[in-house]
Design a protein that fits this description.
seven-stranded antiparallel sheet; 3 helices
């Protein structure tokens, strides 16, 4: 999908803002500065929030599904600071995908480990974007996640997904998370095709 120069500039500015917001959230979670500094930071953030709310919609700006079709690489959730960004690469045949990410303390579960629910969310995102990249509009029908080993924080995680079958409106997908050659999570899902709106 081609974009005009002005829209591209705005998109880049939005991506920079989202990345700064992620960094801010991490800093808020781990900071131990004195109370006075916290109060000043709160005032500053409240002012920024008011400025951004002057022109606000009701939903997060999404990545249109159409933009993933036939594209070899796509940055997923680049406009939502709550989500972990995934730069996904698709195989030429469209049946598999890979991505890498590093998860910080915002998403900690057991000590020094990624929360299991976050791993499940990563798998749902990874499997779902692969299905959508084929041009199908689908929703998750079922997702089964197995935890094989601890998934560590602050280390590069490799995510993989693969379409294994298609039957009518159902698409079967498998996925996994690995860290330094160790498989920590496996997932299986069935996605259901829904009518385009």
């Amino acid at each position: 999908m081609s974009r005009g120069p002005r829209e591209t500039e705005r998109d880049r500015a939005r991506e920079d803002l989202v990345e700064a917001t992620r960094a801010l959230a991490h800093a808020v979670a781990v900071t131990d500065v004195p109370g006075g500094e916290l109060a000043r930071a709160t005032e500053t953030l409240a002012s920024v929030t008011r400025a951004l709310e002057k022109r606000a919609g009701t939903r997060c700006v999404p990545l249109p599904v159409a933009e993933t079709v036939g594209v070899p690489r796509v940055l997923l959730d680049q406009y939502n600071p709550v989500h972990l960004p995934l730069e996904v690469s698709f195989a030429a045949d469209g049946r598999s995908a890979t991505a890498a990410t590093v998860v910080n303390a915002l998403y900690e579960g057991p000590t020094d480990s990624v929360h299991g629910g976050v791993c499940a969310r990563l798998m749902d995102n990874m499997l779902g974007i692969l299905v959508q990249s084929t041009g199908l509009l689908c929703v998750t029908g079922s997702l089964s996640v197995r935890y094989l080993a601890r998934t560590p924080l602050e280390r590069t995680l490799l995510l993989r997904s693969e379409i294994v079958e298609r039957s009518g409106r159902k698409v079967g997908v498998t996925g996994r998370i690995e860290c330094e050659g160790v498989r920590t999570v496996e997932a299986e899902a069935v996605f259901i095709e829904v009518p385009h709106r």
